[in-house]
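User: Here's a structure from my thesis project, written as structure tokens. My advisor, Dr. K., wants to see whether a designed sequence matches the one we expressed. Can you design one independently, without my sequence as a hint?
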């Protein structure tokens, strides 16, 4: 076991120290026109993980041109062959599970057990879209007499993906797997904080038979992302990130009348009624707040608890939260890893300070924990439960994107629905109750793209995911996403003579 771990660690270190962080035409390469250097810090230790130059206009153009060339071949590959290749990618990801999970932890700082779950879900996505794509057919529609129409679904061309840092490979996979399944080719720009696993995916895809250039990776900061959005040969941009950047991406896409999918932030409600199964409600509250150090877009950070069970719920929640183990994310029993960067940790702590100044009480956590060397440079925050919160506090209104849970109480169903919907976000939400009619009533009225009844934060790739309101535009996953990576072509076939009324005289 120890020998295997040492092997994986060596492979991970080799991957991070290899030169060339772009991947174009089937190989890792340096930008030809290097811009400002990006230094990636390993969250777990605070030490330098790797550094590379941001990519400029010429390199973005090279990546897009390569994907455009590959489109000619990939878009003509039969859907069965595309599906088979994507299924193989899924198995290859499973074969490399430990390597990819370790690489993800290096980049992101999340606990290794969570990284394994994420990587397996990437395998699921390739297998799902590989399996589903051969069954997507066009339509035959009779028109009149012998005339009819054919509706075919065609790929868009080169799609650009831009990702966030909290689920690096999953974010990439949720875009790449359906886009490739539909016959598009893809240029992906990972977050500059987490460049590694999207790069490792490129090797896997080429190995299983995806043509070189069909999936390229271009590394860089926001400027690189912007260049990609404005590139005239990019047909669509699929973006995951903050609302403010999403607005810029949408504006860039608008300039070229490009299609756009936006997966943005959230401030989701988790509503717990008095008749809920308390233990399950506590478990789901942990899942809704403290996975990946709280850096999860769909988190249910506004936890509304009905007054009758508030005290008991709070006691159980605090006990469960205090049992979470903050530690080196590579340790198998760690449940809370390292915050992505020092700056982000400071932002999270500043939300807790602002909550206190507005009258909230810190029931537990909310502090930086120093671990022994070599992890003493990492930013480990203890999960924080806030009480005495009100709906108008900054911490209750804004996305914190860290382990900070605001507990709120309520009395009536109507009241809690109104309060749950009083936000510009609409990504997700949850309800805990044993009353099935109430559960359906509530989820019907909550304005969000995904609702969970008696659980939280589960999103298998066969279910659509995406936001209402400012949480986004379009959907990822499920068969719904196939419409977003294709366009229909209508072919009208005349079965008789052309009827042009009085336009034509014999
Ligand atoms: P961010 O908006 O700062 O950056 C996201 C990506 O956009 C990065 O790759 C960045 O380099 C790039 N970028 C920055 N400026 C750009 C520009 N002008 N044009 C094009 N690209 C540009 O977000 P982040 O801090 O990386 O991620 C956190 C945010 O992502 C949170 O708000 C979170 O809720 C959201 N998120 C949403 C989902 C979802 O599925 N809805 C999933 C994960 C994260």
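Assistant: Designed independently from the structure alone:
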């Amino acid at each position: 076991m120890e020998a295997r771990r040492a092997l994986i660690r060596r492979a991970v270190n080799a991957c991070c120290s290899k030169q060339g962080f772009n991947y174009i035409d089937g190989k890792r390469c340096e930008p030809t026109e290097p811009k400002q250097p990006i230094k990636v810090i390993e969250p777990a230790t605070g030490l330098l993980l790797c550094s590379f130059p941001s990519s400029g206009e010429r390199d973005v153009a090279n990546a897009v041109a390569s994907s455009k060339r590959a489109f000619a071949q990939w878009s003509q590959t039969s859907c069965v062959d595309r599906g088979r290749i994507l299924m193989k990618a899924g198995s290859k990801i499973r074969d490399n599970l430990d390597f990819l999970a370790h690489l993800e932890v290096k980049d992101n700082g999340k606990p290794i057990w969570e990284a394994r779950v994420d990587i397996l879900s990437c395998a699921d996505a390739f297998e799902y879209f590989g399996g589903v794509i051969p069954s997507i057919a066009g339509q035959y529609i009779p028109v009149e007499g012998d005339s009819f129409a054919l509706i075919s679904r065609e790929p868009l061309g080169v799609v650009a993906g831009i990702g966030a840092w909290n689920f690096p490979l999953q974010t990439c996979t949720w875009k790449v797997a359906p886009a490739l399944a539909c016959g598009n080719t893809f240029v992906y720009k990972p977050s500059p904080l987490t460049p590694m696993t999207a790069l490792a995916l490129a090797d896997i895809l080429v190995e299983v038979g995806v043509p070189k250039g069909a999936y390229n990776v271009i590394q860089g900061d926001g400027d690189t992302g912007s260049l990609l959005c404005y590139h005239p040969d990019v047909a669509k941009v699929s973006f995951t990130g903050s609302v403010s950047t999403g607005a810029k991406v949408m504006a860039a896409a608008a300039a070229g009348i490009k299609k756009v999918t936006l997966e943005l932030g959230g401030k989701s409600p988790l509503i717990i009624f008095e008749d809920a199964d308390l233990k399950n409600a506590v478990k789901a509250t942990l899942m809704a707040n403290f996975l990946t150090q709280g850096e999860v877009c769909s988190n249910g950070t506004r936890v509304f608890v009905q007054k009758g069970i508030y005290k008991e719920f709070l006691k159980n929640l605090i006990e469960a939260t205090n049992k979470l183990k903050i530690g080196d994310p590579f340790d198998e029993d760690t449940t809370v890893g390292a915050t992505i960067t020092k700056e982000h940790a400071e932002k999270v702590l500043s939300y807790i300070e602002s909550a206190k100044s507005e009258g909230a009480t810190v029931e537990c956590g909310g502090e930086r924990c120093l671990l022994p060397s070599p992890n003493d440079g990492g930013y480990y925050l203890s999960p924080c439960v806030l009480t005495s919160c009100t709906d108008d506090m900054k911490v209750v209104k804004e996305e914190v994107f860290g382990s900070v849970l605001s507990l709120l109480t309520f009395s009536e169903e109507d009241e809690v629905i109104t309060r749950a919907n009083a936000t510009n976000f609409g990504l997700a939400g949850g309800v805990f109750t044993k009353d099935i009619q109430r559960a359906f009533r509530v989820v019907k009225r909550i304005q969000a793209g995904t609702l969970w009844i008696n659980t939280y934060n589960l999103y298998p790739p066969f279910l659509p995911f995406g936001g209402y309101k400012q949480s986004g535009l379009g959907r990822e996953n499920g068969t719904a996403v196939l419409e977003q990576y294709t366009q229909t072509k209508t072919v009208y076939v005349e079965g008789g003579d052309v009827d042009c009324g009085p336009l034509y005289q014999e």
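When you compare it with your expressed construct, this may help: Residues 162-166, 171, 189, 191-192, 221-222, 225-226, 229, 240-242, 245, 248-249, 263-266, 297, 399, 401, 427, 467, 472 surround nicotinamide-adenine-dinucleotide (CB under 6 Å).
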